[in-house]
Specification:
205 residues, mainly alpha, 3 strands
């Protein structure tokens, strides 16, 4: 791929053809990633080290932590961010290869339809991620986790485990749910903006 294609691709990703799309990029790229990268590490970074059970043995703690966290929240949310970026990245890669200018995307029906499809696909992926987050983490982190250790030790089946900083994690969960809802609203609003521009209600950039 030539440098011109790379430049067009990067400009398309950073500067979508709609005002709301540009705001979405700013919100998604700056606030959401900063929140996950900086605050997420502060809240979840040492969780496994401070997760303790009764009896406080290393093998019991590790076994119960793996049961408590099949996937760590940071990994899940990082995967979510990457996957949600894929539809837009494919569209802007296509636009770069076809030498489509950003201002032309809303002028031709085929380009507009392809772009709307990428936005709609982002909505679907965000909704699926929202549902998976509910299944994996719920809406609240309890201070006590009851762990089934029957497969590890036949002397007892259930043990109590202490979840560190459970209140901070609950706040962080709610924040990540809120970010998902905001990005879905922005995607819906972007489709509405495109429709208004196509109908002539708003002036095309």
């Amino acid at each position: 791929m030539s440098p011109n294609y790379v430049r067009s691709f990067s400009e398309g990703c950073l500067r979508p053809p709609t005002v709301i799309g540009q705001f979405h990029t700013l919100f998604f790229g700056s606030i959401r990633m900063f929140f996950l990268g900086v605050l997420g590490f502060a809240v979840y970074g040492n969780e496994a080290l401070h997760f303790s059970c009764d009896p406080d043995k290393r093998e019991v703690n590790l076994f119960c932590y793996n049961q408590f966290r099949p996937i760590t929240p940071q990994v899940f949310w990082a995967l979510q961010l990457v996957i949600v970026l894929v539809p837009g990245a494919f569209f802007h890669l296509y636009a770069a290869c076809k030498s489509i200018k950003q201002e032309d995307i809303l002028q031709k029906s085929s380009y507009t339809g392809f772009y709307i499809f990428s936005v709609f696909l982002r909505i679907v992926l965000e909704v699926v991620a929202f549902w998976l987050q509910i299944q994996l983490f719920g809406f609240k982190v309890n201070a006590i986790y009851m762990c089934d250790v029957g497969a590890l030790d036949k002397k007892f089946n259930i043990t109590r485990c202490m979840v560190p900083e459970h209140f901070e994690k609950t706040i962080f969960l709610i924040a990540m749910y809120t970010f998902t809802v905001i990005t879905v609203i922005l995607c819906v609003a972007e489709i509405f903006e495109i429709s208004c521009r196509r109908l002539g209600i708003l002036k095309t950039q």
